[in-house]
Amino acid sequence: VQKALGGFDLGPAAAMSIVYFLIILLLSWLFYTLMMRSEAK
Q1: Which residue has the higher pLDDT, 17 or 32?
Q2: Phi-psi region for residue 11, left (φ > 0), alpha (ψ -120 to 50) or beta?
Q3: Could you give the angle at the alpha carbon of 27 between the alpha carbons of 20 and 40, nearest 5°?
Q4: Chain-centre distance of CA 1, in angstroms?
Q5: What's the pLDDT score for residue 17?
Q6: Secondary structure class of 1 (helix, strand, coil)
């Protein structure tokens, strides 16, 4: 239970995976909005 609650105890690897996940999420959102704008035109 302690490991489940303290997920950040995994260290740099977990932090990097979270950062990469956020970057991919941001890129996919930007790509989606750009596609929507191009379709609107």
Answers
A1: 32
A2: left
A3: 165
A4: 25
A5: 86
A6: coil
- The one-letter amino acid code at 26 reads L
Query: What would the two tokens of residue 41 be?
Result: 């035109």
The length of the chain, given as a count of residues:
41
Residue with tokens 């996919």: 28
**Cα 26 to Cα 41: distance, rounded to the nearest angstrom:** 23
Residue 31 is predicted with a pLDDT of 96
User: According to the model, what pLDDT value does residue 9 have?
Assistant: 62
Residue with tokens 């490991």: 3
Go through 2-34 and write b for each residue having 16 or more CB atoms within 10 A of its CB, e for each that does not.
eeeeeeeeeeeeeeeeeeeeeeeeeeeeeeeee
